[in-house]
Amino acid sequence: MCKVIQFRFTCHHTLRLRKSSCGGTRHKTTRNSTKAACNADAYITRTLSHDCGACQQKEWDDTWKRKLERAESFAKTLTGRGIPGTEEVAELVKQLEAQYAAAAWDMRHAFAHAHRPSVARVGISHREIALSPLSREVRPEDVVERVQFKDWAHEEYEYDGDYVASTDPMHPVDNTSYSHPLYYDDDSWVLNHLTAEEIQDEGPGVAFDFGESTWGWDDDSETPTAGSEHGKRHRQILRRHRETTDLSRYYSDWLMISRCEMRDFEGLEGRVIRDPPRMCGVVMSGSGCGQMN
């Protein structure tokens, strides 16, 4: 249907204005012809506080015509009675007529000359059945954004390592990690390299001495020294800790002590210090396995 708006003036005249028209795809067949079935009426009526253009033009013309009629009537009265000054009055009447002609020319576009005709019926057109354009709608997931690869050709002094600067001077961004590198390390991998006999408790002769100097590369001795009383006391603490906690936590502490006293960490292949695998984003120190002779 066509979209039609109707305006109503104070003179009770109306004006219909079509904002948009239909396609005329619906037809009405009569005895003589076929025409569009759309004969839309106004869906809204707006009331204006003034007269229509034709009524305003007519009122303006009537005012000037009454003024000219009074002037001509006065000039005829003077001529009929023979009163002097008839020529001067006749000249004033001509000037008034000239003013009316000039004003009428200037006001020809001030008001609408006539009502617009009624909204004409739309023409006939054929109806085309097509799929909805929504089926060809481009969705956000259909748009593939171009991946911006980092240009590693930057100079060393220009590349900042993806540093993110803070906009708040009171709270700068600190990307430094102060956590211990072994904090997120999973030490359970050492269980894969130990046998059941090695997991069991050793004899009283094997102990950790934290107060004694550790073994160095310049030391010719290959036999571990006997544990002191201080080491025995720590050994007892580890035994009690083993009974109250799980094995993974116990061997995690045991591995830490073994790293401090490398000569006490013995395996089937001799005194070997193996580097753990990469886990949790933390890389242990060392690059391979180091074997002590």
Query: Strand order within the widest sheet?
Result: 2-1-5
E-strand count: 7
How far the N terminus sits from the C terminus, by CA atoms, comes to: 99 Å
Mean pLDDT: 70
| H-E string | EEEEEHHHHHEE
Low-pLDDT ranges: 222-228, 276-293
User: Which bin fits the share of residues in helices?
Assistant: 25-40%
Query: What characteristic shape results from the CA principal axes?
Result: elongated
Class inferred from helices and paired strands: alpha+beta
Q: Give the C-alpha Rg.
A: 54 Å
The major pleated sheet works out as:
3 strands, mixed
Number of helices: 5
Q: What percent of residues are in strands?
A: 5-15%
Write structural notes for this entry.
With 293 residues, the chain is α+β, with helices and mostly antiparallel strands. It has a 3-stranded mixed β-sheet with strand order 2-1-5, with no helix packed on it. A two-stranded antiparallel ribbon has the order 3-4. The longest helix is centred in the first third of the chain and has 29 residues. The chain is elongated and about 155 Å long. It starts with a strand and ends with a strand. The C terminus is likely disordered.
In short:
Helices cover about 30% and strands about 10% of the residues.
